[in-house]
What we know:
Layout: E1 2-6, H1 11-20, E2 25-29, H2 40-46, E3 52-55, H3 62-67, H4 69-90, E4 94-99, H5 122-137, E5 141-146, E6 149-150, H6 157-168, E7 170-174, E8 178-179, E9 182-183, H7 184-195, E10 201-204, E11 211-212, H8 213-223, E12 229-233, H9 253-259, H10 266-274
Helix pairs in contact: 1-7, 2-4, 4-5, 6-8, 8-10
The protein binds NADP nicotinamide-adenine-dinucleotide phosphate.
Amino acid sequence: MRILVTGARGMLGTDLCAELGKRHDVAGFDMAEADLTAPASVDALAAQRPQAVVHCAAMTDVDACERDPDAAYAVNGLGTRHVALACQRLDVPLLYVSTDFVFDGAKREPYYEWDAANPLGHYGRSKLAGEQAVRELLDKFFIVRISWLFGKHGRNFVASILAKARSEGTVRVVDDQTGSPSYAPDISAAMARLIESPYYGTYHLTNGGSCTWHGLAAEAVRFAGIKAEVAPIASADYPTPTRRPAYSVLKNFCWERTFGAPLRPWQDALREHLA
Ligand SMILES: NC(=O)c1ccc[n+]([C@@H]2O[C@H](COP(=O)([O-])OP(=O)(O)OC[C@H]3O[C@@H](n4cnc5c(N)ncnc54)[C@H](OP(=O)(O)O)[C@@H]3O)[C@@H](O)[C@H]2O)c1
């Protein structure tokens, strides 16, 4: 199958292209090919004649989205509409990557795919606008909400913590936000199974288990064999422009009922990542 991947040079997109490339003809599509905020990107995407599209491209800097909401809605909302329009024109399935930030975190137990979204900020609202565009325009789609992504490529939490622990010997990390870390290669392998299947719909996809950011940082430092203090702090002690959900664990209900095995625990994935 010829699969087009937007955001192909991003953290997830890089691993996803490698995974899909094992069995498919993969074409990457980034800013260099076309700016997805422009209507002309619909033609540029359709001209590639894909048989399926995976849409990873997004404005992912949560605080930048809060500072410039119009930019966030242009990329994450309108840009996703353009990708969906290209898929509609070609009548091919779309896998849209969404986020745990569509939830407000008030539930305090794992979110089902059907739980009501209520984003706290513009990043979550703009990604939800992308979900709405996909649902409005397409019959054949996967909306896949992931969370707390880490991997080899791009800017990410685990790499930043390890660099700081090594250089400063101490890191202070928020201990009152709980979520599920997700390893980009594991998420990529699961997404490849989804896009090869006819089981369209909304999915939550994360590694197994949950932790706080402090818990994730402490395990990363321990697995990496770094002698450093990992001190827990409250969100109030680390002010950011964006309110983040205090609890955003995603129950992988549809994935497990449709495909059987849950993804491995996040600690196993982290250990492999740092090996
Ligand atoms: N990272 C996480 O923790 C996390 C959690 C939940 C959900 N997600 C979702 O997962 C997906 C992948 O995230 P990621 O962290 O791998 O992303 P990333 O590394 O930030 O990569 C984003 C990609 O999007 C491209 N892009 C941005 N604006 C564009 C535009 N206007 N037109 C065309 N391409 C554009 C970027 O291209 P350039 O580099 O050329 O600008 C880049 O390749 C996103 O949809 C994100 O919302 C991520």
